[in-house]
């Protein structure tokens, strides 16, 4: 297995894996192109994929560079340890179900963190899916050093209404909770 920077050649596999793990219509080509651009800064790419020996994407970490993403109503900047100019955003991670538990997630996060620091970020936030199986998303981010800022109800409901997102638990009426967590980059 290799960790590589996300490139256009990976897009179709990343979209397929993202929709498998996070639910239908979570990613499409237009969304992924925008995400990709928000992770580029100073000639460096903060998003990564894990590719197996057969060349298949078995995991990805999509990350926005500091100062290049929209701070919305689901963010609590007054509780962040750094100013928004130095805050990156860990958009999402997905590991194929057959590859989970092999340490791929931490390797992808580490690769993103190294690039974010080179780009000038001092911390990063994420909105983690509290209802993930076994609350694995929050456990994973906590183990990496993340701390809880705030819980947000109905975080992905607007995505259902406006973008046709289908939560793997709630369908097209998602009431899952997001844990806004911060990871200081040291």
Automatic annotation (TrEMBL):
<protein>
    <recommendedName>
        <fullName>N-acetyltransferase domain-containing protein</fullName>
    </recommendedName>
</protein>
<feature type="domain" description="N-acetyltransferase">
    <location>
        <begin position="1"/>
        <end position="186"/>
    </location>
</feature>
<dbReference type="InterPro" id="IPR000182">
    <property type="entry name" value="GNAT_dom"/>
</dbReference>
<dbReference type="InterPro" id="IPR016181">
    <property type="entry name" value="Acyl_CoA_acyltransferase"/>
</dbReference>
<dbReference type="GO" id="GO:0016747">
    <property type="term" value="F:acyltransferase activity, transferring groups other than amino-acyl groups"/>
</dbReference>
<dbReference type="Pfam" id="PF00583">
    <property type="entry name" value="Acetyltransf_1"/>
</dbReference>
């Amino acid at each position: 297995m290799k960790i590589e920077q996300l490139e256009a050649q990976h897009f179709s596999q990343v979209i397929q894996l993202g929709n498998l793990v996070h639910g239908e219509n979570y990613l499409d080509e237009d969304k992924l192109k925008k995400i990709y651009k928000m992770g580029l800064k100073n000639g460096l790419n903060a998003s990564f994929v894990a590719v197996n020996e057969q060349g298949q994407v078995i995991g990805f970490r999509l990350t926005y560079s500091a100062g290049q993403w929209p701070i919305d109503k689901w963010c609590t900047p007054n509780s962040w340890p750094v100013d928004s100019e130095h805050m990156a955003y860990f958009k999402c991670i997905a590991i194929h179900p057959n590859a989970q538990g092999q340490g791929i997630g931490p390797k992808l996060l580490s690769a993103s963190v190294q690039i974010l620091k080179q780009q000038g970020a001092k911390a990063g936030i994420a909105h983690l899916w509290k209802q993930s199986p076994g609350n694995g998303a929050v456990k994973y981010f906590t183990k990496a050093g993340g701390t809880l800022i705030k819980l947000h109800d109905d975080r992905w409901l607007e995505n259902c209404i406006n973008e046709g997102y289908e939560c793997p638990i709630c369908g097209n009426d998602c009431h899952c909770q997001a844990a806004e967590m911060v990871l200081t980059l040291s």
